[in-house]
Design goal:
The structure is a single chain. With 119 residues, the chain is α+β, with helices and mostly antiparallel strands. The protein is 29% helix and 32% strand. It contains 3 helices and 5 strands. Strands 1, 2, 3, 4 and 5 form a 5-stranded antiparallel sheet that branches. It is elongated and about 45 Å long. The two termini are 21 Å apart.
């Protein structure tokens, strides 16, 4: 179960858009839990210029099986032209927690009427 769990990172421009995306992710059963962190300062190169922006990070707990749905949802709902979507494999964790992540992201729980991209 451990090698099935992913921690996905993304940043949003403000707390309201981060909260909205977190809610969409959980409602769609694309993740078991989303942590919205305090704003941070990001420095990066974009279109040839060095930029600095305040962003709100999200830490998203999901599974390998649910990742394609999660990536599609983030990409479709994210306000950035090129959103950061990085998945890190979880190599250790409390087994009961990792089982909960797996149960919450089960495709059978997804509302078939939600307009989400298919895997």
């Amino acid at each position: 179960m451990m090698d099935d769990t992913l921690l996905v990172l993304t940043n949003l421009p403000d707390a309201a858009s981060a909260a909205k995306l977190a809610h969409q992710i959980i409602k769609a059963h694309c993740a078991a839990c989303v942590n919205q962190l305090a704003p941070c300062t990001s420095t990066y190169r974009w279109q040839g210029k060095i930029e600095t922006a305040s962003e709100v990070p999200l830490l998203i707990k999901t599974t390998v099986a649910a990742y394609p749905r999660l990536e599609a949802l983030i990409h479709a709902a994210h306000p950035y032209e090129l959103p950061e979507i990085i998945a890190v494999t979880v190599t250790a964790g409390l087994p009961a927690y990792l089982n909960w992540v797996s149960q919450e992201t089960n495709e059978s729980l997804r509302d078939p009427h939600m307009n989400l991209p298919k895997e």
